[in-house]
Amino acid sequence: MSVFEIIMLVCFGAAWPFSIHKSWTSRSVNGKSPVFLLIVMAGYLAGILHKYLYNFDGVVYLYMINFTMVAVDMVLYARNWRFQKTGV
Prior knowledge:
This protein has 88 residues and is mostly helical. It is built from three helices and no strands. Helix 1 (3-26) packs parallel to helix 3 (60-86). The relative contact order is 0.19.
């Protein structure tokens, strides 16, 4: 377990609740990129797979929490895109 990996995941993870809140309250896709969200999700998934296959430790839970938060933001992106498309 690397303290630097933990710090990196905590720092990156700290930003997602703010992004989710903005997505939830704004009901807008402005400033959001689904491609970026998918790339970030792929990175977290790669981290999870690495932990399971080669170096399992408790840090895998930070990867899973971060992946989940990005997935929630992606779902909110889809919701907000629908809102903007239908004018709700």
